[in-house]
Amino acid sequence: MLTHDTYYVPAQSKWPIIATLGMLITVFGLATWFNDLKAARPESHGPLIFFVGGLLLAYMMFGWFGAVIKESRAGLYSSQMDRSFRWGMTWFIFSEVMFFIAFFGALFYVRHMSAPWLAGEGHKGIAHMLWPNFEFAWPLLNNPDPKLFPAPKGTISPWGLPLINTILLVSSSVTITIAHHALRKGHRGALKIWLAITVLLGWAFLGFQAEEYIHAYKELGLTLGSGVYGATFFMLTGFHGAHVTIGTIILFVMLMRILKGHFNNEHQFGFEAASWYWHFVDVVWIGLFFFVYVL
């Protein structure tokens, strides 16, 4: 490792512009896909565009993170660079916290302000005159205009798959902590086992969530077009599922690096950053479980 007086500055890189293009193409493809689904177009280029953008992002992540790993293994990073990484990860997680706070805020606004107002609560306007038969209750199974937004037949019980997924994620938070302690103590065997268990728990969570989505769509009629309840449900659980997917992939990469002999009790920030991110998605899920499923 370099001394604290030296700060490594890498050469100009193509990865930032590739990341920008990848995100642009991915979001454009997803928007096209959803719009075509809403318009019931039989042929849509949205999935293909989305897939191309995803491949470009995967290529960027493989190349960019690979370059960072090589630089770190070559001893180009000083303690000051290590602090930069830590601050960068801290602010990244903070931005993600704000991201989900905005979504939880939308849920709070719908449940406690806009939907009750549409039902005429407190006589805050004349909206209740537009839908005189609309009565507010959450979960919202009686939309103001059921012809435009057909309400779902029911809701998902929190004591089935959601509870199982809660147990899985809380358990994975414990296993990643045990793995982290094993790394600090130099117990490589225990580190590999507990990290592998964490990855398996992450994939199990995603499998159960996929099963839950299939049940919601096919049996309950709970979709993105089911009104504000369906929109907020899939917005919150969907984005969280995407974060769990990313986190599981990151942990799998950490496992592969550990199998190659990377990390030790002194140089382990890559693993620490992955564990921070995993604890973050665990905490978000606990909030989701109570505010989306239980309350």
From TrEMBL:
One BP annotation, GO: aerobic electron transport chain
UniProt cross-references to Gene3D superfamilies, sorted A to Z: 1.10.287.70, Cytochrome c oxidase, subunit III, four-helix bundle
Cellular component aspect of the GO annotation: plasma membrane; respiratory chain complex IV
Entry's Gene Ontology molecular function annotations: cytochrome-c oxidase activity
Compartments where located: Cell membrane; Membrane
InterPro entries, sorted: Cyt_c/ubiquinol_Oxase_su3, Cyt_c_oxase_su3_dom, Cyt_c_oxidase-like_su3, Cyt_c_oxidase_su3-like_sf, Cyt_c_oxidase_su3_a-hlx
EC numbers on record: 7.1.1.9
Domain of life: Bacteria
Residues spanning the membrane: 15-34, 46-69, 90-110, 191-208, 228-255, 276-294
Enzyme class of the recorded protein, top EC level: translocase
Chief location: membrane
One family name in Pfam for this protein: COX3
Domain Heme-copper oxidase subunit III family profile: 3-295
Membrane topology note: Multi-pass membrane protein
Entry keyword set: Cell membrane, Membrane, Translocase, Transmembrane, Transmembrane helix
Family: Belongs to the cytochrome c oxidase subunit 3 family.
Protein name per UniProt: Probable cytochrome c oxidase subunit 3
Protein's organism: Pseudomonas yamanorum
